[in-house]
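Protocol step 4 of 6.
Sequence for Transcriptional regulator (Virgisporangium ochraceum) entered exactly as in the expression construct, tag removed. Do not edit the line below.
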Amino acid sequence: MTLVVFLLVPRLHLLDLAGPAQAFSTAADLGHGYELRYVAEHEEVPTAQGVPLRASVQWPALTADDLVIVPGWRGRFAAHARLSKATRAALVAHHASGGTVASVCAGAYALAQAGLLDGRRSTTHHALQDELAARYPATRVQRDVLYVVDDRVVTSAGIASGIDLALHLIAVRHGAADAAKVAREMVVYARRNGDEPQRSAMLRHRGHLSDTVHRAQDLIDARFADRLPLAEIAAACDVSPRTLTRLFSAATGMTPLRYQQTLRLERAENLIAHGSTVDAAARSTGFDDARMLRRLRSRLP
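Step 5 output, structure tokens:
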């Protein structure tokens, strides 16, 4: 059982908490072993939207597989969220033991207080990026991205980006297909526009209305590491290969084969970022050999 521990700060935004909490709860409903816990420095936590929450003041025992997430709050960084020495130490200890810590929106300030952003890349809500950079010059603030991953420290932008963060963490642990199932249950296929290189490909190309293409993507998402002839995908969608290619290209801007290759490459990048060798990542994601994976990685911006 993996614990997902949310550290609640006064005046937190409900969606900063509810978005990732729903994602991990849905993943648990789909058969993954997640248990959600809530901790705070005081049992009652006021929220920005006026609904009080209750949390434990005792941290559970954590392992390296567990996650700690800090939702953001209303107000500037310095307001409402000066963490105690014990809370900062708990964040540091979890990361030092091999665990992952994450933040949504202003929650980056909590990680910065604990020193976890020193020397690491980070992001936060666009309205707070200048303040984060000024208060904590040791962190390298990345602008105009949904989330940033740096050595098991994951920071995300404003409010709803916490869902993107949670889906990324689920994809890293269980693969793109399972994260896509969670996203579909939450009805969050449509993503924001703009240059967001950290977005998952399984979500980036789901903002369309073609049921046929969604069915094709469901099959590719679930079996992206397998050999999937175009004819097999088309048959599963009750259309001809030519029609599928036309519909798929119109909806996503790429062919089914290119989409599958994109999923493979993204999953391989996740594996490599978490310590896998290129050869092992290539085998796990369905590449015939590591040379193809290396060539594709060399073309990445």
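Step 6, annotate. The domain at 208-298 is CATH 1.10.10.60 (Arc Repressor Mutant, subunit A).
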